[in-house]
Amino acid sequence: MSEPKGAWNFVRGFENLSLCDWPGRTSCILFLGGCNLRCPTCHNFQLAWDMHSLPVLDPQRIKAYLRDRAGWLDGVTISGGEPTAVPGVGELAFEVKKAGLPVKMDSNGMRPEVIAELLQEKLVDTFAVDVKGPYAKYPSLTGNAVSEIAARANMARIFEMAEALPGAFYFRITQVPGLTKADIAVAQSYLPPNHELKIQKYVPPRRTTEHAKPNHEERRPAGNLVD
């Protein structure tokens, strides 16, 4: 297999079936390496910070799987890491959508301009955005990768888009250590009308060599599972 080009070179994990990652849908999951945050509680730390320690996957096998199983799936999730930080992620989403399946993308919301473009070009149908907590706690929750001011500005743009396109977004928060019920209530108050904040249980990460996890509640391996 030749080295994948563009955003496909960031695809370092694939799960061929998930019943819980996209609520109400069966989906497969592409995991993209790299992240613009350094959250100390991250479960996908190897994928996010050291993707080159994970194997490169064959794009042709993934595309073939999508074509062959499109009738059995309700969608495709693009997760990470942080997909919006991957150069050319729109081109990857375009190729995924060729299978005729809707696309959901997981994001931390810190690149709202990319999200806006993906929505405008109809390359992503739904965004699952993680709200880390109150804006004042973003520096500590993200390993000082985001300031309170930047968090407020970026998430404000996300919430504006969600208010304009309510069906295109849902929001979640993980109750990590140091995050109180009052903090979660503050984060909930940021959301536009008719949006709920799903609270995810925190499971302490195991700092050993692991593959990606679909979300903070699951510990399913996500390696080269294409068949």
Automatic annotation (TrEMBL):
- The reply to whether S-adenosyl-L-methionine figures as a keyword in the UniProt entry is yes
Q: Which InterPro entries match?
A: Aldolase_TIM, NrdG2, Organic_radical-activating, rSAM, rSAM_sf
**According to the UniProt entry, which residue ranges have a biased composition of type Basic and acidic residues?**
207-221
Query: In terms of domain of life, where is this protein from?
Result: Bacteria
Q: Which UniProt keywords apply?
A: 4Fe-4S, Iron, Iron-sulfur, Metal-binding, S-adenosyl-L-methionine
User: From which lineage does this chain's organism come?
Assistant: Bacteria, Pseudomonadati, Thermodesulfobacteriota, Desulfovibrionia, Desulfovibrionales
Q: Where is the Radical SAM core domain?
A: 21-227
Which organism is this entry from?
A: Pseudodesulfovibrio karagichevae
Where is the segment annotated Disordered? 198-227
UniProt xrefs under Pfam families? Radical_SAM
- Please name the PANTHER family in this protein's record: PYRUVATE FORMATE-LYASE 1-ACTIVATING ENZYME (PTHR30352:SF5), PYRUVATE FORMATE-LYASE-ACTIVATING ENZYME (PTHR30352)
Can you say what this protein is called? Answer: Anaerobic ribonucleoside-triphosphate reductase activating protein
Tell me its cofactors.
Answer: [4Fe-4S] cluster
